[in-house]
Amino acid sequence: MILSLFALGAEVTPAVKESQVAIQNAFKQILDDEYSFRNFTNERVFLTELEAAVATDSIIVACTEPAYYKAFKSFICNAFQLKCKPTKVISNLIEFVHPELSDDFIAEQASIPASATPLPTQDGLYSGFGIKAKKQLLIVLPLDDKRIDYVINNSLFQFVRENMDMSVLTADPLAGMEETDSPLARKSTKKSGQLYDALYIKSCAKKFKSKGLTVAIADTKTVDFISNISTSDVDLSQIFYIGEYNIDKGDKSAREYAIDLAKGVYETYSNDVGAVITKVFSMPDENGIQQYFMYVAIADGEKTNVAKLTAEPLETPPQLIYRAVEELFRMLEMWAEPDYVASQYADSSVVRKPAGSNKNPELKKLKIIVGGLLGLGSLASVIISFVANNIYGVL
Fold first, then answer.
1. pLDDT more than 70, % of the chain
2. CB-based contact 37:77 (threshold 8 Å)
3. Where are the alpha helices (DSSP H) in the chain?
4. What single DSSP character describes residue 342?
5. Is the N end or the C end of the chain the one with fewer CB atoms within 10 Å?
6. In this structure, what DSSP letter does residue 270 have?
7. For the chain, which domains are there?
8. What is the per-residue pLDDT across 54-79, written as a single tens digit (0 to 9) for each?
Protein backbone atom coordinates (compact mmCIF):
# COMPACT_ATOMS: atom_id res chain seq x y z
CA MET A 1 0.00 0.00 0.00
CA ILE A 2 0.97 3.61 -0.42
CA LEU A 3 -0.87 5.15 2.53
CA SER A 4 -2.10 4.21 6.01
CA LEU A 5 -4.22 6.57 8.11
CA PHE A 6 -4.28 5.91 11.87
CA ALA A 7 -6.18 7.65 14.66
CA LEU A 8 -5.89 7.04 18.40
CA GLY A 9 -8.51 8.47 20.75
CA ALA A 10 -11.49 7.97 22.99
CA GLU A 11 -14.21 8.26 20.36
CA VAL A 12 -14.88 9.52 16.86
CA THR A 13 -16.71 12.77 17.60
CA PRO A 14 -18.24 14.89 14.79
CA ALA A 15 -15.23 17.23 14.98
CA VAL A 16 -12.82 14.30 14.73
CA LYS A 17 -14.77 12.84 11.82
CA GLU A 18 -14.74 16.17 9.98
CA SER A 19 -10.97 16.37 10.36
CA GLN A 20 -10.50 12.79 9.16
CA VAL A 21 -12.64 13.40 6.09
CA ALA A 22 -10.60 16.51 5.27
CA ILE A 23 -7.35 14.51 5.46
CA GLN A 24 -8.82 11.63 3.44
CA ASN A 25 -10.02 14.03 0.74
CA ALA A 26 -6.62 15.72 0.64
CA PHE A 27 -4.84 12.46 -0.15
CA LYS A 28 -7.63 11.45 -2.53
CA GLN A 29 -6.60 14.37 -4.72
CA ILE A 30 -3.14 12.95 -5.32
CA LEU A 31 -3.38 9.16 -4.93
CA ASP A 32 -4.91 6.55 -7.21
CA ASP A 33 -7.07 4.95 -4.53
CA GLU A 34 -9.28 6.12 -1.69
CA TYR A 35 -8.06 5.57 1.84
CA SER A 36 -9.95 5.68 5.14
CA PHE A 37 -8.89 6.14 8.73
CA ARG A 38 -8.54 3.22 11.10
CA ASN A 39 -9.57 4.24 14.61
CA PHE A 40 -8.04 2.78 17.76
CA THR A 41 -8.75 3.21 21.46
CA ASN A 42 -6.06 0.77 22.65
CA GLU A 43 -2.41 1.87 22.52
CA ARG A 44 -0.93 -1.61 22.17
CA VAL A 45 -3.17 -2.52 19.25
CA PHE A 46 -2.41 0.85 17.69
CA LEU A 47 1.34 0.23 17.90
CA THR A 48 1.03 -3.29 16.53
CA GLU A 49 -0.85 -2.07 13.47
CA LEU A 50 1.49 0.90 13.10
CA GLU A 51 4.46 -1.45 13.05
CA ALA A 52 2.86 -3.52 10.28
CA ALA A 53 2.20 -0.39 8.22
CA VAL A 54 5.81 0.80 8.60
CA ALA A 55 6.96 -2.47 7.06
CA THR A 56 4.88 -2.06 3.90
CA ASP A 57 3.59 1.47 3.28
CA SER A 58 5.11 4.60 1.78
CA ILE A 59 3.18 7.16 3.83
CA ILE A 60 2.04 6.68 7.43
CA VAL A 61 -0.23 9.32 8.94
CA ALA A 62 -0.85 9.20 12.71
CA CYS A 63 -3.40 11.49 14.36
CA THR A 64 -5.31 12.30 17.52
CA GLU A 65 -7.61 15.05 18.79
CA PRO A 66 -6.27 18.24 20.42
CA ALA A 67 -6.95 17.21 24.03
CA TYR A 68 -4.46 14.34 23.72
CA TYR A 69 -2.11 15.83 21.14
CA LYS A 70 0.78 16.78 23.42
CA ALA A 71 0.93 13.32 24.95
CA PHE A 72 0.40 11.72 21.54
CA LYS A 73 3.46 13.47 20.10
CA SER A 74 5.58 12.09 22.94
CA PHE A 75 4.02 8.66 22.46
CA ILE A 76 4.89 8.58 18.75
CA CYS A 77 8.38 9.97 19.27
CA ASN A 78 9.15 7.42 21.98
CA ALA A 79 7.94 4.63 19.70
CA PHE A 80 10.31 5.73 16.93
CA GLN A 81 13.13 6.77 19.28
CA LEU A 82 12.97 10.37 18.12
CA LYS A 83 14.32 13.23 20.21
CA CYS A 84 12.13 16.33 20.32
CA LYS A 85 12.86 19.99 20.86
CA PRO A 86 10.92 23.24 20.35
CA THR A 87 11.15 24.65 16.85
CA LYS A 88 11.25 28.42 16.32
CA VAL A 89 8.92 28.32 13.32
CA ILE A 90 6.07 27.13 15.55
CA SER A 91 7.02 28.90 18.78
CA ASN A 92 7.40 32.28 17.04
CA LEU A 93 3.98 31.86 15.44
CA ILE A 94 2.32 30.98 18.76
CA GLU A 95 3.99 33.92 20.51
CA PHE A 96 2.81 36.25 17.76
CA VAL A 97 -0.83 35.09 17.82
CA HIS A 98 -1.11 34.19 21.53
CA PRO A 99 1.23 36.47 23.51
CA GLU A 100 -0.72 35.61 26.68
CA LEU A 101 0.49 31.99 26.78
CA SER A 102 3.32 30.90 29.06
CA ASP A 103 6.79 30.06 27.75
CA ASP A 104 6.51 26.48 29.04
CA PHE A 105 3.18 25.93 27.29
CA ILE A 106 4.54 27.36 24.03
CA ALA A 107 7.63 25.16 24.26
CA GLU A 108 5.47 22.05 24.68
CA GLN A 109 3.29 23.02 21.75
CA ALA A 110 6.32 23.77 19.55
CA SER A 111 8.15 20.55 20.42
CA ILE A 112 8.67 18.22 17.45
CA PRO A 113 11.46 15.81 16.42
CA ALA A 114 14.71 17.57 15.58
CA SER A 115 14.72 16.03 12.09
CA ALA A 116 11.07 16.86 11.34
CA THR A 117 9.52 19.41 9.02
CA PRO A 118 6.92 21.51 10.87
CA LEU A 119 3.39 21.52 9.45
CA PRO A 120 2.02 24.57 11.28
CA THR A 121 -1.57 25.46 12.04
CA GLN A 122 -2.75 29.04 11.52
CA ASP A 123 -1.93 29.99 15.12
CA GLY A 124 0.79 27.43 15.80
CA LEU A 125 -1.20 25.45 18.36
CA TYR A 126 -1.41 21.68 17.73
CA SER A 127 0.90 21.93 14.74
CA GLY A 128 1.76 18.77 12.86
CA PHE A 129 5.09 17.54 11.58
CA GLY A 130 6.49 15.26 8.90
CA ILE A 131 9.62 13.11 8.71
CA LYS A 132 11.25 11.50 5.72
CA ALA A 133 13.25 8.32 6.20
CA LYS A 134 14.65 6.77 3.04
CA LYS A 135 11.53 6.33 0.87
CA GLN A 136 8.98 6.59 3.66
CA LEU A 137 7.11 9.50 5.20
CA LEU A 138 5.78 9.66 8.75
CA ILE A 139 3.24 12.45 9.22
CA VAL A 140 1.66 13.42 12.54
CA LEU A 141 -1.44 15.64 12.38
CA PRO A 142 -4.06 17.02 14.78
CA LEU A 143 -7.69 15.98 14.34
CA ASP A 144 -8.70 19.57 14.88
CA ASP A 145 -11.59 20.64 12.66
CA LYS A 146 -10.75 24.31 13.14
CA ARG A 147 -7.11 23.98 12.07
CA ILE A 148 -6.67 20.98 9.77
CA ASP A 149 -7.74 22.76 6.56
CA TYR A 150 -4.98 25.31 7.01
CA VAL A 151 -2.37 22.59 7.57
CA ILE A 152 -3.50 20.71 4.47
CA ASN A 153 -3.53 23.72 2.16
CA ASN A 154 -0.41 25.46 3.40
CA SER A 155 2.11 22.76 4.29
CA LEU A 156 0.93 19.14 3.92
CA PHE A 157 0.76 19.13 0.12
CA GLN A 158 4.09 20.94 -0.06
CA PHE A 159 5.76 18.43 2.28
CA VAL A 160 4.49 15.44 0.31
CA ARG A 161 5.49 17.06 -2.97
CA GLU A 162 9.03 17.77 -1.84
CA ASN A 163 9.68 14.43 -0.17
CA MET A 164 7.69 11.78 -2.00
CA ASP A 165 8.46 9.96 -5.23
CA MET A 166 5.88 11.74 -7.39
CA SER A 167 5.60 8.75 -9.72
CA VAL A 168 3.22 7.16 -7.20
CA LEU A 169 0.92 10.18 -7.35
CA THR A 170 -1.79 10.76 -9.94
CA ALA A 171 -1.38 14.52 -9.87
CA ASP A 172 0.81 17.15 -8.31
CA PRO A 173 -1.50 19.60 -6.49
CA LEU A 174 1.16 22.30 -6.52
CA ALA A 175 2.41 21.85 -10.06
CA GLY A 176 3.09 25.14 -11.80
CA MET A 177 2.92 27.19 -8.63
CA GLU A 178 5.73 29.64 -8.05
CA GLU A 179 7.69 29.48 -4.84
CA THR A 180 6.70 32.21 -2.41
CA ASP A 181 7.97 33.33 0.94
CA SER A 182 6.47 31.42 3.83
CA PRO A 183 3.71 33.41 5.53
CA LEU A 184 5.28 32.37 8.83
CA ALA A 185 8.17 34.70 8.16
CA ARG A 186 5.97 37.70 7.53
CA LYS A 187 5.85 40.43 10.10
CA SER A 188 2.93 42.49 11.30
CA THR A 189 2.58 45.81 9.51
CA LYS A 190 1.03 47.38 12.63
CA LYS A 191 3.50 49.49 14.54
CA SER A 192 2.03 48.40 17.87
CA GLY A 193 2.38 44.74 16.99
CA GLN A 194 -1.14 44.13 18.29
CA LEU A 195 -3.38 41.79 16.36
CA TYR A 196 -6.56 43.66 17.24
CA ASP A 197 -7.73 46.89 18.86
CA ALA A 198 -8.59 45.69 22.37
CA LEU A 199 -9.77 49.12 23.53
CA TYR A 200 -12.22 49.41 20.64
CA ILE A 201 -13.60 45.91 21.21
CA LYS A 202 -13.90 46.62 24.93
CA SER A 203 -15.85 49.82 24.27
CA CYS A 204 -18.18 48.00 21.87
CA ALA A 205 -18.73 45.21 24.38
CA LYS A 206 -19.60 47.76 27.06
CA LYS A 207 -22.12 49.40 24.71
CA PHE A 208 -23.75 46.08 23.77
CA LYS A 209 -23.97 45.01 27.39
CA SER A 210 -25.55 48.28 28.48
CA LYS A 211 -28.28 47.80 25.85
CA GLY A 212 -28.80 44.16 26.77
CA LEU A 213 -27.94 43.00 23.24
CA THR A 214 -26.75 39.46 22.56
CA VAL A 215 -25.22 37.80 19.52
CA ALA A 216 -25.59 34.18 18.39
CA ILE A 217 -22.48 33.31 16.40
CA ALA A 218 -22.16 30.26 14.18
CA ASP A 219 -19.68 27.59 15.28
CA THR A 220 -17.19 27.92 12.42
CA LYS A 221 -13.48 27.17 12.29
CA THR A 222 -12.62 30.72 13.37
CA VAL A 223 -14.99 31.17 16.30
CA ASP A 224 -12.16 30.38 18.72
CA PHE A 225 -10.55 33.68 17.79
CA ILE A 226 -13.52 35.39 19.45
CA SER A 227 -12.93 33.19 22.49
CA ASN A 228 -9.25 34.11 22.54
CA ILE A 229 -10.00 37.78 23.16
CA SER A 230 -12.66 37.12 25.80
CA THR A 231 -10.66 37.73 28.94
CA SER A 232 -11.31 39.17 32.36
CA ASP A 233 -10.45 42.57 30.85
CA VAL A 234 -12.58 42.26 27.69
CA ASP A 235 -15.58 40.20 28.84
CA LEU A 236 -17.62 38.95 25.88
CA SER A 237 -19.23 36.07 27.79
CA GLN A 238 -22.53 37.91 28.33
CA ILE A 239 -22.76 39.08 24.74
CA PHE A 240 -21.64 36.27 22.43
CA TYR A 241 -23.23 32.84 22.51
CA ILE A 242 -21.84 30.10 20.30
CA GLY A 243 -24.65 28.36 18.47
CA GLU A 244 -24.10 24.72 17.59
CA TYR A 245 -25.06 25.58 14.07
CA ASN A 246 -23.28 24.92 10.83
CA ILE A 247 -24.19 23.87 7.30
CA ASP A 248 -22.38 22.31 4.38
CA LYS A 249 -21.06 24.82 1.91
CA GLY A 250 -21.94 22.59 -1.03
CA ASP A 251 -21.96 24.48 -4.32
CA LYS A 252 -22.59 27.86 -2.68
CA SER A 253 -20.13 30.66 -3.17
CA ALA A 254 -18.25 31.73 -0.05
CA ARG A 255 -20.42 34.86 0.09
CA GLU A 256 -23.70 32.91 -0.15
CA TYR A 257 -22.40 30.48 2.45
CA ALA A 258 -21.69 33.33 4.90
CA ILE A 259 -25.14 34.83 4.36
CA ASP A 260 -26.88 31.50 4.92
CA LEU A 261 -24.88 30.86 8.10
CA ALA A 262 -25.73 34.25 9.59
CA LYS A 263 -29.42 33.92 8.73
CA GLY A 264 -29.54 30.32 9.92
CA VAL A 265 -27.95 30.91 13.32
CA TYR A 266 -30.29 33.87 13.89
CA GLU A 267 -33.36 31.81 12.98
CA THR A 268 -32.22 28.91 15.18
CA TYR A 269 -31.67 30.95 18.33
CA SER A 270 -33.55 33.82 19.96
CA ASN A 271 -30.78 36.38 20.24
CA ASP A 272 -30.92 39.89 18.83
CA VAL A 273 -28.68 39.17 15.88
CA GLY A 274 -26.94 36.22 14.23
CA ALA A 275 -23.33 36.46 13.10
CA VAL A 276 -20.62 34.49 11.40
CA ILE A 277 -16.93 34.76 10.67
CA THR A 278 -16.10 32.20 8.00
CA LYS A 279 -12.92 30.22 7.74
CA VAL A 280 -10.08 31.59 5.65
CA PHE A 281 -10.54 30.65 2.00
CA SER A 282 -7.67 30.57 -0.47
CA MET A 283 -7.51 30.75 -4.23
CA PRO A 284 -4.48 30.96 -6.52
CA ASP A 285 -4.22 34.08 -8.63
CA GLU A 286 -3.09 34.13 -12.25
CA ASN A 287 0.50 33.61 -11.08
CA GLY A 288 -0.36 30.62 -8.93
CA ILE A 289 0.16 32.56 -5.67
CA GLN A 290 -2.39 31.81 -2.97
CA GLN A 291 -4.72 34.69 -2.13
CA TYR A 292 -6.52 34.55 1.23
CA PHE A 293 -9.99 35.95 1.88
CA MET A 294 -12.93 35.50 4.24
CA TYR A 295 -16.40 36.83 4.97
CA VAL A 296 -18.16 38.38 7.96
CA ALA A 297 -21.95 38.51 8.04
CA ILE A 298 -24.76 39.46 10.41
CA ALA A 299 -28.52 38.90 10.12
CA ASP A 300 -31.50 40.00 12.19
CA GLY A 301 -34.46 38.40 10.44
CA GLU A 302 -35.20 41.42 8.26
CA LYS A 303 -31.90 42.33 6.68
CA THR A 304 -28.52 40.73 6.25
CA ASN A 305 -25.16 42.43 5.84
CA VAL A 306 -22.00 40.80 4.57
CA ALA A 307 -18.44 42.03 4.16
CA LYS A 308 -15.53 40.43 2.33
CA LEU A 309 -12.00 40.81 3.67
CA THR A 310 -9.01 40.06 1.46
CA ALA A 311 -5.52 39.60 2.86
CA GLU A 312 -3.25 42.55 2.31
CA PRO A 313 0.36 42.07 1.12
CA LEU A 314 2.41 40.30 3.79
CA GLU A 315 -0.70 39.71 5.94
CA THR A 316 -0.90 36.25 7.48
CA PRO A 317 -4.16 34.28 7.91
CA PRO A 318 -4.22 34.89 11.71
CA GLN A 319 -3.86 38.62 11.11
CA LEU A 320 -6.67 38.48 8.57
CA ILE A 321 -8.92 36.62 11.03
CA TYR A 322 -8.37 39.16 13.80
CA ARG A 323 -9.11 41.93 11.28
CA ALA A 324 -12.35 40.10 10.52
CA VAL A 325 -13.13 40.07 14.26
CA GLU A 326 -12.70 43.86 14.34
CA GLU A 327 -14.92 44.16 11.27
CA LEU A 328 -17.61 42.12 13.01
CA PHE A 329 -17.58 44.53 15.96
CA ARG A 330 -17.74 47.50 13.59
CA MET A 331 -20.76 45.99 11.84
CA LEU A 332 -22.47 45.21 15.14
CA GLU A 333 -21.77 48.68 16.49
CA MET A 334 -23.41 50.26 13.45
CA TRP A 335 -26.31 47.82 13.68
CA ALA A 336 -26.88 48.76 17.34
CA GLU A 337 -27.43 52.44 16.48
CA PRO A 338 -31.12 53.48 16.50
CA ASP A 339 -32.93 53.74 13.16
CA TYR A 340 -29.98 52.50 11.15
CA VAL A 341 -31.24 50.91 7.93
CA ALA A 342 -29.44 49.32 5.01
CA SER A 343 -30.46 47.32 1.98
CA GLN A 344 -30.41 43.53 1.99
CA TYR A 345 -26.98 41.92 1.49
CA ALA A 346 -25.18 45.24 1.63
CA ASP A 347 -21.42 45.08 1.42
CA SER A 348 -20.49 48.23 3.28
CA SER A 349 -23.34 49.03 5.68
CA VAL A 350 -25.28 47.26 8.37
CA VAL A 351 -28.93 46.64 9.11
CA ARG A 352 -31.22 47.39 12.00
CA LYS A 353 -33.74 45.16 13.78
CA PRO A 354 -36.40 46.26 16.27
CA ALA A 355 -35.25 45.92 19.87
CA GLY A 356 -35.97 42.82 21.88
CA SER A 357 -33.83 40.02 23.24
CA ASN A 358 -34.32 36.57 24.69
CA LYS A 359 -31.26 34.48 25.43
CA ASN A 360 -31.54 30.90 24.32
CA PRO A 361 -30.46 28.61 27.15
CA GLU A 362 -29.28 25.98 24.65
CA LEU A 363 -26.58 28.24 23.30
CA LYS A 364 -23.07 27.52 24.48
CA LYS A 365 -21.99 30.56 26.49
CA LEU A 366 -18.66 32.03 25.52
CA LYS A 367 -16.09 31.32 28.22
CA ILE A 368 -13.70 33.86 29.66
CA ILE A 369 -10.11 32.77 29.15
CA VAL A 370 -7.77 33.63 32.00
CA GLY A 371 -4.21 32.42 32.46
CA GLY A 372 -3.86 30.41 29.25
CA LEU A 373 -5.87 29.15 26.32
CA LEU A 374 -8.77 27.22 27.89
CA GLY A 375 -6.39 25.55 30.32
CA LEU A 376 -5.19 23.12 27.65
CA GLY A 377 -1.63 23.42 28.86
CA SER A 378 -2.48 21.36 31.93
CA LEU A 379 -4.53 18.64 30.26
CA ALA A 380 -3.11 15.14 30.62
CA SER A 381 -4.03 12.28 28.33
CA VAL A 382 -6.42 9.77 29.84
CA ILE A 383 -5.74 7.36 27.02
CA ILE A 384 -2.11 7.35 26.01
CA SER A 385 -0.19 5.74 28.84
CA PHE A 386 1.84 2.98 27.24
CA VAL A 387 5.35 4.06 26.26
CA ALA A 388 7.01 1.95 23.59
CA ASN A 389 10.75 1.51 23.65
CA ASN A 390 13.09 0.02 21.05
CA ILE A 391 10.23 -1.19 18.84
CA TYR A 392 11.13 0.42 15.56
CA GLY A 393 14.40 1.18 13.88
CA VAL A 394 12.93 2.38 10.63
CA LEU A 395 12.92 6.14 11.05
1. 75
2. no
3. 14-28, 43-56, 69-79, 88-97, 103-110, 148-151, 157-163, 198-210, 223-228, 254-268, 317-335
4. -
5. N
6. -
7. 3-175 (3.40.980.10), 198-362 (3.90.950.20)
8. 888 889 999 999 999 999 998 898 88
